[in-house]
Amino acid sequence: MSAQQRDVLLRPNDHQPVTIAVVRRESVHLPISPPGSVTTATLYEISTDTLRVHVTDLGATVTRVEVRRSVADAWKDIAIGFDRLSCYVPPSAAAFEYFGPTVGRYANRIGGGIFYTAKQDGSTQRHELAKNDNGTCSHGGVHGFHVRVWDSVRVYCEDSMAGLEFVRVSPDGEEGFPGTVEVRATYAIGTALSSSSAKTSTVSSTAVGDVVMRFQCKHLMPPEPQQGDPGAVPCSIVNHVYWNLDGLQPQSPQHHDVKDNEDDRCLTEVTKHHRLWLRAPLYTVADSLLVPTGAIAPVKGTPLDFFTPDGCPVPLGKAIEELTETPFHGFDHNFVLQHPHPLAREVRGHSFYPWCVTSCDASDWTAAVLSSDTSRLRAAVFTTFPGLQLYSGNFLPSKESGDDAGGLPNTYHDRRVVYRSGVCLEAQYFPDSPNHSHFPSTAIEAGSSRTDWQIYAFSFES
User: Fold this and answer.
1) CB crowding 270-307: b at 16 or more within 10 Å, else e
2) Are strands 39-47 and 19-28 parallel, antiparallel or unpaired?
3) Is the pTM of this model over 0.85?
4) Alpha carbons 147 and 149: distance in angstroms, whole number
5) 355-391 confidence digits (pLDDT tens)
6) How far is the C-alpha of 411 from the C-alpha of 407, rounded, in Å?
7) How far apart are alpha carbons 64 and 241 in whole angstroms?
8) Which of these, 120, 137, 247, 393, could form a disulfide with 129 (CB 3.0-4.6 Å)?
9) CA-to-CA dists, residue 291 to 94, 98, 446, angstroms
C-alpha cells in the first residue's frame, strides 16, 4: 500500500503534529488457531516530521522506530524488526526472542511456573502456568499476548500525544493465569519530554520526539461472583523492543548483492558504541535460570553499577567484559529503580505523561539514558515501573554461525540479527514477584485496575 493509498486515521492539526495511518494488512497463521486457518493482522504508522513508529495489532508489537534530526535528513531505524508480520509468530524463531511485542499476562519469569493466590473464601489456590523456558513461565507462557491478534484498536489523542490503543481480554485460565483481565497497551508520540530533556542536557541537543507507552490492566468482575472466585490476581505487561541506536537505513539493491563483507551484513553490536546510565542503586539477585532468589543487593562495586553520581553513562562493552564469569554471558538483570520521591508510586494513571514535565524537572524523573557514540542519538527513559530489566541480546545467534543459525529472518533492511546486536530496557515489575511478598505487588483486586508508563525521549547530541 503506497503512501497515497494509505488509510489515514488521524491528520496533524494546530494542536498536535501526529499522523496515524494504516500501512498494510497481512494474513498470518497463529499458533492457537486450527491448522490452515489465517487471521488478518494490521500494521500501522504513527509519525511526525522527525519520528515515526510502526506498530501492529499482532502482539501489540512495535516493528520499527525511525528517527532523523530534520526533514532534510534520512530516516534511521533504531528498533530491530522484520518486514513480514509472519516473522513474529511460530515457527519463525524470531517469535521466541520477543522482538518488540507487548508481553503478558506476566512479563519476565515466574519460577517453576507456579504461584499461589488467596480466594474470596479465604482459602489458598495453587496455579500452574504454561512453562516455556527451562521449567519457568516466561513472558506469559507458550501462547502469551505476543502471538495473539489483539481484540480491538482505537485512535488515542490527548495529553499532548497521539497514537493507538490496543485492547484484549485475557480470559480466566489462559496459560494457567487466574481471573479475567482486560489489558490496554497504548503506543503514542509526543514532544514534551524530549524537548525538556534536550534543554536540560549537559551538551547541545536537538529534540526528536517521545515514544510514549502506557499499559493498563483491569481485573474484571465475574458476572456472578462466587466465594471460590480468585481474589487479587497478578498482572504485569511491558514492551520488549530491542534497541540499536547506531541506526540503519534501507539498503540499495546493489548492496543486497554484496556478500563478501560479513560485517556489512550484520547489525552492529550495541556493546561497541553504546553507553548507559541507570538510576538504580540495587538489583534483584537471580539464580542460574534467571529467577530471583528474593535477595536484593547493591550495585556499587560491581559491573552492574551504572548509577554514576555525575550522570555520565558507562560504556556497555567495558561493563560486559567484567561479567564474563557470570552465567548470563552478558546483562539479563532486573534493576531496582530509585524514583525521585514518594509521589512516584502515586502519579500512575492517565496524567503521568504531562505531569512529570509540568510539575518537576524532567531530569529528576530520568530512570535511564542510553546513547550511541556513532549516531549521537540519546534515549532518556521515564517510567512509573519499580524495576528495569537490562538485556544485552545474549541469546541471539553468533555472527560466525551463518545465515540460518537460530532461524532468525533478516531485518527489513536485509541485515542479520546477531549476538548482542540489540539491547532491551524493559521497565517492569520484578520477575517472580507473586512468589516474593517483599517485592512490589502486581496483584489487582476484582473490579480494580492499574496503569503504568514507559516513555523514551529521543534527542540528537551535537
Assistant:
1) bbebbbbbbbbebbbebeeebbbeeebeebeeebbbbb
2) antiparallel
3) yes
4) 7
5) 665 655 666 778 999 999 999 999 999 998 999 999 9
6) 12
7) 9
8) 137
9) 23, 18, 28
